[in-house]
Each structure stands twice: as C-alpha cells, then as structure tokens.
Design brief:
Strand order of the largest sheet: 9-8-7-6-10-11-12
Number of helices: 15
Strand content: 15-25%
Helix content: 40-55%
Largest sheet: 7 strands, mixed
C-alpha cells in the first residue's frame, strides 16, 4: 500500500493563501515556542474552524442584476461564540477574512472575553452603490449566512465601510427569520435598537488608553507628545481627538484623500467638522498637504496607524521616525517591518491589544442586550479602561520576563488562553 502523505498544511494554505494570512500565520509560528501549548492544539489553531463563501445577488437601481462574492470565516469557538466585523471593500477575500478572524481570536482571549474570532465581508465598491443597493446587499448576505449566525454562534459588528445602519439591517433580517427581535445578534447598532453608549468611540478611545498606559510605564507624560495619525475615520478621528484632549500635539492626520501637516499642531475639532461636511479631508488648506506615504515618515513621538493593513513594510520601516507606533488598524505592520522597527528600538503597540476597545465594548453591548439592562457612558468607559489596563499590564510583564516584543507577548498571552481551554475541552471526537 502506498504511503499516505500528510498534506494538511498544504491543503490549508491553498484555501487561504494570501499575504495577510501568511502574516498572521508567521506571527503565530513566532509566538508558539513561548506559548507552551501542545502540538495538537497548535495544529488545530493554525486554521479556521469554518469558512463560508457565498454569492450575493443584488438587483441594482438600473434594473441590472449583479452577483457579489461574500465571506464569513470563524476561526475558533473554543471560548464561546465567534465575534468579528463585516467589511465591504474591493479587496475582501477569503485569506484576508481568515487572517483577521485569527487575530480576533487572540484579541478576545487576551482581553479575556468569552468569544472566538470571526471576520466577514463582501467584495464590492460600497462607494459605487446606492443606499437601497447596500440595503439589498446586506439583507441578502445576512440571509445567506443564517445557518452560521446567532447570538450564541457568531455575532457580526461594523468594520470597513459598514456602520450602525448596516448592523440594523442585519439585526432586522435575522429577527424577521426567527419571528422576534434579537438585538444581541449584532453589536455596533443604533442605540434605539439596543446599541451601547460609547461603542462608536470605543476603538479610537481604546487606542489612546493603551498609548497612555504605555507612556506611564515609560515614565513619560502623554501631554506634549507629538503625534501623527494615519486614518481619520471612526478610529483615527476619535484617537486624534482623544490625544488632543490629553494635551498631546497632533501635528498630522490623513485619510484616503491624503494628509494635512502643521508643525504647530492641528485643530482637530475643525478637521472633524470639515471631514463630516465634505466626506473627506480633500481641499482642507489649513496646513501643508502631504501624501499618506510622506505622512508615515514624519518625525514624531507617536505614530498611530488607523487606516488599513500593510502600511509599514520592509521598504519604508527604516524611514519611520516615531518613538512609538500604535496599531489602531489590523495588520498595518508587516513581519519584515516589525523586525526592522524592533532593531531600531521603536516600540510597537500591537493591534491585538491596541485596537481591542471595539470588541470589548461590543462584548459589553452583547451582555447588556442579553440582560436587557443598560449602563451609562461613564460606567462603560471605566470598564473599558480597566480591561485594557489589565491586558496591557499582563503583556508588558510577559514581555519583560521573557524578553519578547509586545506583539509576541500579546500573541503568547492570547494563544495560552485559547490553548488552555482547548486542552481542557479536548479536540472532538
């Protein structure tokens, strides 16, 4: 009889083979030697539990039909239902969703939330679709995902180009199928449907909470630090405002239209008002216009990456002039860039810790919906600060004890939490 060859890794990579998934796997492999989990557990956690690819037919406003590809990846349900955003973007693919789902697993475990990681999305250009078309797209996508969605199975949230309205459509579509209102099926929805106070601000505010905790450990006040923020949407815009409120000097910000730089500090309130009124920072002339690429290389104390993945790479990492890089986006720093920044002594606050404010307050929203008992803004903010401080302190301590980068320490902490649970439960059957 011919020898049966073990091709499990090859088969796995065929489905999810993308640069972003390879980045997530590389980070996982680098953390594994320090995580002390068994070989069977490590092998199981390399790959998502479930990956669903669907086609989403939509009748456009002009009467034509178009079919969009949609995805939902659930990486791990060991600790509880899976949790993760839904994004609408021309570059969404299975590998991207798999990578983001894996990072979400480590993030939830690190924050000790009873969730596993998921991510999904539709490959489309949302800016080319009308509101009616987006609604039809969302409702049909939700219908296609009904077998794998549920408040104890998989709970979506907003992500790139999706928002409270998107979540309201998902919640309504699911509720119509089961016959009663189920607010806990999604998070990040409108307050009127059971959304949580402070959810909109949570990711950006959480980024700054982590930065502030870091500077406390460094023995340096955050006030007076010069900050550059790439991305001026829900995460970057909120983070810029929070930094400004704490006395930091925000000298540059950017969005898809490019960046604005002013050495004396920008008027964040005016910038946000302009962006809300005009849809972007295009045309804003109170400062020097710079490209997104130039913005990343400006001299500063804190560089906040709040745009999208793969922004700091092996090509430009040697030109970064920040003391601290804070990852508000998922996967904005490549593996090669991570090594270069580490060699140069630039501290990187990793995404799985730094942008965890969003999923943490999503958890608070889910808990409030299940209990039908809601908290006020100050209580939620205080609970978030406590959660992030606890996670940061554990990561900082582990990094010091084992001589790891903060990213490796965060991943090790998350992998250990999931690994311990999987070891106790065992791998069925």
């Amino acid at each position: 009889m011919a020898e049966v060859q073990d091709v499990s890794h090859d088969l796995g990579h065929l489905e999810w083979e993308t640069p972003l998934f390879n980045q997530a796997i590389t980070q996982f492999e680098q953390a594994l030697p320090h995580a002390a989990v068994g070989d069977a557990v490590a092998e199981r956690l390399r790959f998502p539990e479930r990956s669903l690819v669907v086609s989403v037919p939509v009748r456009l406003d002009d009467g034509r039909w178009r079919v969009f590809p949609g995805y939902r990846v659930q990486h791990s349900s060991v600790l509880g239902p899976t949790k993760g955003g839904v994004r609408y973007d021309p570059e969404v693919d299975l590998g991207e969703c798999a990578a983001l789902a894996m990072w979400m697993t480590w993030k939830c475990a690190l924050l000790r939330l009873p969730y596993g990681g998921a991510k999904g999305g539709i490959r489309c250009n949302p800016r080319a679709l009308s509101l009616n078309e987006l609604q039809a797209l969302t409702r049909r996508f939700t219908s296609e995902l009904l077998p794998v969605l549920g408040p104890q199975q998989d709970i979506p949230a907003p992500d790139m180009a999706t928002n409270e309205q998107t979540m309201a459509w998902i919640m309504d579509t699911y509720s119509m199928q089961v016959g009663y209102a189920v607010p806990e099926i999604v998070t990040g929805k409108p307050i009127s449907l059971g959304g949580s106070l402070f959810r909109h601000e949570a990711t950006g505010a959480g980024v700054v909470m982590v930065i502030e905790r870091c500077f406390q450990k460094l023995g340096t006040p955050l006030a007076g630090q010069r900050c550059v923020v790439q991305g001026f949407g829900n995460v970057g815009g909120i983070a810029a405002g929070e930094l400004h409120d704490r006395g930091a000097l925000v000298v540059a910000v950017s969005d898809l239209s490019g960046g604005v730089h002013h050495e004396g500090g920008l008027d964040i309130s005016a910038l946000r008002s302009y962006a809300e009124a005009n849809g972007s920072l295009a045309g804003y002339d109170s400062g020097e216009r710079v490209s997104n690429e130039e913005l990343l290389e400006l001299p500063c104390d804190i560089l906040v990456l709040a745009a999208r993945e793969d922004q700091v790479t092996g090509e430009n990492a040697g030109r970064i002039q920040a003391r601290v890089v804070a990852e508000g986006a998922n996967g904005p720093t490549s593996v090669e860039a991570d090594a270069i920044l580490g060699e140069r002594g630039i501290l990187v606050l990793p995404d799985v810790l730094t942008n965890a404010g969003g999923v943490t307050v999503s958890y608070f929203e889910w808990v409030q919906d299940i209990g039908r008992l809601f908290w006020d803004r100050n209580e939620i903010r205080a609970k978030l600060a406590d959660k992030l401080a606890d996670a940061f302190d554990r990561v900082w301590r582990l990094a010091e004890e084992q001589g790891l980068s903060l990213r490796s320490a965060a991943l090790v902490a998350g992998i250990r939490e999931v690994g311990a649970a999987l070891t106790s439960r065992g791998i069925y059957p």
